[in-house]
């Protein structure tokens, strides 16, 4: 796919965010990935051009970061955390089940272009282990059965809600958010769940509070 | 010791993430007060508070700020390290999901204090939920006149950029983060010069962790004396602890520094199935593990160091006796091997060799002699790599061997999965195909 003039304009916009244009290389790579579903040589060349470096230099950056994929990801990116906490608490079984269901392994796409599977590293959600991601949105506390159900629903084109985020929208839409973070979806979904409130619940139950903190509503 | 919700106090208000919600509880009051003070006075207050960095190293925050040369005619930068990727660490992301304006208010105050007109919040790319919430907060704060030109009529200008990473644990290392933010591969820089002198674009730069910055509005608003009521002389303040593993109620628990793991465990409902603690790590996979005998050690920077470990990120991971320590450690090393940036040889080659040897053990191979050789190998990496990732990779195995030598020796003949049925450590009861 050729990089359009409007994409080049967006790249210029991204470059203007920073004191030096090269800082925009990462958001630009997210942008081209949102358009192409992968980071192609053409996409890299356009980014390189926009920040004034050689294609080789931009390729060195693109190849360093694991989120930039050099093959088509397809419609949905599925991640299953297999780091120690998630893996040992059941993520290993979740990964096996999802891999069996999709018929692909780590960093492979299904032939129909629907899914990409990845064994992911720690997703900063160990309290919610085992964790899975769909298009990098959290699907917390999964089991092998619930994880496969998520895949089934995605395959049928049904709406899948992130457990701490909006309904999943596809890999490319998430990549667009990474280039343009204020995507209007901050209020979608329930982002603060029972586990994030666990300590607050205990504190309320046992009448504990921080010293000298004015009660809610008194100040303004 | 009681729980003391401060940063987490209003998380059950679903509107807290909005500007209006945050302002219901006094949000941006600290900013208004800060802008009426001299920047140096703010640095002084943060110094006096004794706040230490919550990202793992525990460096005194006010001191770090004071290293930035003033009136040097160069632009200054503030960079927030929101690249939370350490196995076990899961407190910055929840803070950004629930209370993003505390971060944004802290960023503006800190930028003013260190005389920076540009601030960057570098958030790992794998968590769009946090990225969009912080971006939303930045936009709301801009619309309200807290960010931009002449903030609240003070003459102070500030711009805040939310930057998404793209999957690299090493970018949590502050100089690698700077290279990444400049549009390069995220590889650490040689220090000195330290970022306070030559950081982003070779200009003076402060890099602080998310939770550290979130403390700032509370310290400025409520005062140093209030802050020092929490914690100890050397570890003042409160901490957002994230408790994970085989506990009945894993989650976020905010308490003063100095609380013990036994107390946190009680708040978290105890071990699941009434089980026993086999080993636990106070703050991420990079700190040495402890056992049940350490449950009463106060969780402060100094007491954790005295117990031979570190407070780290303050996000304890707790494992019960169903877990194979061989498997746990192997998995962490596979992570470090994957995340080594490849810049220096001890780390690049060392993580490869440690992981390879551990994988042999996990599958019932190797010799008892190799159990000791591997300690020596870790010793050859410790202190010899370019950045702390190599040290971190050389930590889990010797730490585990100290308490579980027999298990590693046994693993050279009996695979970990035969010593410990993996299914027993799963947190769901669902039948699993074997």
Helix and strand run of chain B: HHHHEHHEHEHEHHEEHEHEHHHHHH
Mass-distribution shape of chain A: globular
State mean pLDDT of chain B (0 to 100 scale): 97
Derived from helix and strand composition plus strand pairing, the structural class of chain A reads alpha+beta
**Stretches of chain A where pLDDT falls below 50 for ≥5 residues?**
214-220
Unreliable stretches covering 5 or more consecutive residues of chain B: none
Class by SSE composition of chain B: alpha/beta
Strand order of the largest sheet of chain B: 3-2-1-4
Radius of gyration of chain B using CA atoms only: 22 Å
Short description:
The complex is a heterodimer of chains A (220) and B (434). Chain A contains eight helices and five strands. Chain A has helices at 5-16, 25-36, 41-51, 55-62, 84-102, 144-155, 171-179, 198-205; strands at residues 76-81, 108-109, 115-120, 132-134, 137-139.
Describe the SSE topology.
The complex is a heterodimer of chains A (220) and B (434).
Chain A: H1 5-16, H2 25-36, H3 41-51, H4 55-62, E1 76-81, H5 84-102, E2 108-109, E3 115-120, E4 132-134, E5 137-139, H6 144-155, H7 171-179, H8 198-205
Parallel strand pairs in A: 1-3
Antiparallel strand pairs in A: 1-4, 2-3, 4-5
Helix pairs in contact in A: 1-2, 1-3, 2-3, 2-7, 3-4, 5-6
Chain B: H1 19-23, H2 29-35, H3 39-49, H4 61-66, E1 77-82, H5 92-98, H6 100-113, E2 118-123, H7 128-143, E3 159-164, H8 174-181, E4 205-209, H9 210-222, H10 224-228, E5 238-245, E6 251-256, H11 261-267, E7 277-281, H12 301-306, E8 317-320, H13 325-339, H14 345-362, H15 368-381, H16 388-393, H17 396-411, H18 416-419
Parallel strand pairs in B: 1-2, 1-4, 2-3, 5-8
Antiparallel strand pairs in B: 5-6, 7-8
